[in-house]
Amino acid sequence: MRLPTIIAWLAGIAALTALIAFNDPVRLADGIAALGWWLIAIVAWHAIPLIVDARAWQLLYRRRPPALSLLTAIWIGEGVNGLFPIPHLGEIARARIARHAAEPGEAAATVVVDLTLGVATELVFALLGVALLATWSHKLGAVRFLAPVGAVIAGSALAFYLLQRAGLFALAVRIAHRWSDAARRRFDVDSAAALDDAVRQIYLRRGPLTQSAIWRLAGWLVGSGETWLVFHALGQPIGIADAIIIESLGHAARSAAFVIPGGLGAQDGALLILGAALGLGPEAGLVLALTKRLREMVLGLPALATGYAMFARPVTDAARANS
Question: Helices (DSSP H) in the chain: which residue ranges?
Fold first, then answer.
């Protein structure tokens, strides 16, 4: 793990700690405790967007793997991304899991395209949230404040896409070869170029690509149900539009703060502000943020354990074969 990542991670933890400290930790804990048995429904609901995202990913394959294997890979990848302070380690994990059910190189290529579609559809989701905020709540000042966030997400998605079309992975390997002897031994330019070609081939299949994007956007929308459930359980029921506003702009803040692992502090601060802007109170927004962090841990810890068991098994089997 590099020093800048560690510093960003610690800064995020410090920001989240400060948010909790300055907003009556006891009342926040009471708010989470007040959810009671609703916590089970809130955690369980998250399975629905995961299933939708698995379907979106499945559509990118020529020969589609079983949905359950892709769902498992997404669950483990999300757990890794949520609990490990290493950017996009979860995508590497799910590509490793899915490659057993696909042609060589195809799993990694589909993960790259799925990640790109995820960012692109998240931007659409965020724009929907901004439009609803402006139309229903007349918070034009908030819309102007959120414009730079949208610009960061749009710029990131466009740059990532253009780099892929230009041969991102072969270029990255060539640069790494110039700077590191270890990279020359570990990374092969031909393999990276093959991955670039596989990615380009997926972009040429417009029908499945469009269907996958629609399912991806549906996953973001369905995820708003978690926010709706939390406020319903808190005795502050909100409409679907408000749930979409909070969910979309909270995710946008997390993505814009991509240098901070897990968007620590950024997503939580955004939810606090959005809760206050919609008349729910800052504490309610922060209870939502902490509930989301709790859900990440409840689902993420068993995901990490499952992933460790899956990755350790081949090593164990090989050791036994050599003994």
Answer: 3-21, 25-34, 38-45, 47-58, 67-83, 89-98, 106-136, 140-165, 168-179, 181-186, 189-204, 206-233, 240-256, 266-277, 282-322
